[in-house]
Amino acid sequence: MRAAFLDRLSEHLLRGLYSAALYLLLPVTLYHLVWRGFRQRAYLLRWHERYARYGDAAPPPDGCLWVHAVSVGEVNAAAPLINALLRDHPHRRVLVTTITPTGSERVAALWQGRVSHVYLPYDLTGAVQRFLSHFRPSVGLIVETELWPNLLFACRDLGVPTFLVNARLSERSLRGYRALRPLVGRALRTMRRVAAQSAADAARFVQLGARDDQVEVCGNLKFDLRIDPDIDRFAAEFRRRVPGRPVWIAASTHPDEEAAVLGIDRHLRQRWPDLLMLWAPRHPERFRGATQQAIDTGLRVATRTLTVLPDAEDQVFVIDTLGELMLFYACADVAFVGGSLQPVGGHNLLEPAAVGTAVVTGPHLHNFADIAAQMQQADAVLVEVDASSVASALEALLGDRVRCDAMAAAARALVEQGRGALRRTLALVRPYLS
Q1: CATH no., domain 46-218
Q2: pLDDT for position 371
Q3: What is the mean pLDDT of the chain?
Q4: Which SUPFAM superfamilies does the entry mention (predicted)?
Q5: pTM over 0.90
Q6: Which among 342, 432, 347 has a CA at the least distance from the CA of 76?
């Protein structure tokens, strides 16, 4: 009993210090919202949700099934799971929370009102308690690495079972939790199960503080991604508009990669003057800037929102929409996946792989290390050290149709073999969904 008492006392002290620090930093949250709002106006809206103030809004009459996915990538990863909840529990309300406006927009685009959405409040004790009291979730499915201590402790105290699904934890993230590891480890142990993407992720969660019997390797939900049934028709229409032209796509690029992307395109265009580049910046606030940069280089530029599809004269086509990236991956001969030439950690390599497009990426892949390793082992991706070698790899693939097709076939086969994480994850959480 003494040990249990001391453990509980230690938890209260850690929680108290953490919560006090958050309340002292409360003005910073306002500054952050305003600062982000200058770049993306959606951050200036719906502030009441950030602090769990819902006014007279009616709560779900029978509670809800709650899924938290921080932004676009996590929403896409969780989509198979959310679709399964909607299919298997048609009379339950599904609540999806995000932190970013782009995540909110993706939720709206995917489910068009079939799920509820609010922003997850800041991890303040009062805010998370108001959030849970208002929505009364019967279960919480938290995607990937969102470990907010006050939220998890409040779920435990209110009897809301929580699961970490599609869970991943890179070595870098593990080091980042070093200062808060005693508190985060305790919060992690309040969860019913951790459904890890890989054995390496599972081991790192145990290092962070999870119990061995709490963690299970379920695979990556991203392998269970849905392919639009109209994708072949879309790609055929695209190719009809630009017959015979070589096409490459620069996807999910970040601001510091934009100059490199234009340099790669310039290099490739020396060999293929009729080259068409598809360009999908990662963040909507960069759509206009990337478009202008391409125009400033003297290229003829079109955009998805203005011209729908490129024509025979367009040299760059900017995909300034959300949720259509896989459609355009299917239109390209080769793909460069961004967030990898700077230490962002990379983005989803499986999307181009699933539609049969050869993939090239940069060296910074710590967010997708396991997937990148599997794809490298299967000869399904080229991982290059810098922008110059990315350009050379893209040039080699564009000039070698046989190798390009072989890489695409290997990537597609890997995706098919990796499916099954959804079934294993549902088996873990199903007893808590009724």
Answers
A1: 3.40.50.11720
A2: 87
A3: 93
A4: UDP-Glycosyltransferase/glycogen phosphorylase
A5: no
A6: 347
